[in-house]
Amino acid sequence: MNAFSVKGNVLYSTSMDKISAFPHHYLVCEDGICQGIFEKLPEKYKELILYDYGNRLIIPGLTDLHIHAPQFAFRGMGMDLELLDWLDQQAFPEEAKYEEEAYARKAYTIFADALKKSATTRAVIFATRHEKATELLMDLLEDTGLITYVGKINMDQSAPEGLKEPSAADSAFRTFGWMNHISGKYRYTRPILTPRFIPSCSRELLEELRQVRMTYDLPVQSHLSENPEEIELVKNMFPEAKFYGDCYDRYDLFGNRPDGEFKFTGRTVMAHCVYSTDEEAELIRRNGVIVAHCPASNMNLSSGIAPIRKYLDMGIRVGLGSDVAGGQTESMFRAMTDAIQVSKMYWRLVDKKAKPLTFEEAFYMATVGGGWFFGNVGRFEEGYAFDALVLNDERLAHPQQLSLNQRLERFVYLGGDLFGIEAKYVAGRNIV
Ligand code: GUN
Ligand code: FE
Fold it and tell me: What angle do CA 291, 75, 182 make, to 5 degrees?
């Protein structure tokens, strides 16, 4: 058994609106699992190796529920476009390059290295439609020690010839090939079914993907109701669907239907949900789909502001995504502050009943909210995965006394992840 304890100023969400602080407490990890938090180390743990982090802050690791690995190469460039033009002019031309192994290796090495150094401990990732490059990305991520889901994209229409797949059957065939090839290969890296979004999937492809999901009980990731033109396109393409999300649901690609024949254990994450109607939001809730809120991307692509308060009030699960390169940075600290800031503008300009998100709520979404996609992740409670960040805020000088909660809030707002991550544990392994 691999066991150890760590000591420091521990903070984590004990409810959605409370971050509890435990000064100079001990955490115990056994085989990657948290055994609890203690003011005094229980006798039975006294012999364990102790990593004493002194006055540092220790928080749960953060989950990035939505990020595009191939888009990392052009982050921070070509931002002055809306979604559909941005896809045509920025995302698709870059993604086409991943056909070539040498380029994919170069780009994905940079991506994996950056993600390893970030505040992210777990991530749900889009690759491209190329199965070889996707496997290469999985190899590189496995070496980082991060825990991730990675998806080979499926797309058989509405993209340039070189990038869209020649047919639905070909797309499915390659997905089966990819699944078989990686079977049993990784410990920390898992596959996820990834229809790009409805405009790039024919009905035939969605039907094929239903079969793939049934075969492997896969989790699913995609985009939903992100941009007004996109939604109009979906309406025209799918007149039989009641709303955007219904297109996925008709093919068993939208969480778990309570009355569905097949019970999937693999979960579903939908990015954005900026314009989900009440009916769509209700289906999200009913099918247990989790929303990946990506505020930076929604600002950069002028998509809009997702009504996250409404979703939380409805009992919908919400986590945060960086959505690189719609979002310019992989920083989940930045995603937290962006989520709070856009919610304030939504309250001020759109809906006075939608109370702005608080720091506590944003922290909850980045830890517990997104962590749910992976199981028991995001808290320091017994039975939860031991994912932890040790934060050094010494560089942020201050004249006054600060509480632990104040130190955490300012570390997040001031971008402390750029310089102050001293250790990062993923399921009990310190990876940086
Ligand atoms: N919808 C379909 N593809 C994409 C993508 O790559 N990024 C974003 N933000 N939305 C999408
Ligand atoms: Fe995206």
Answer: 65
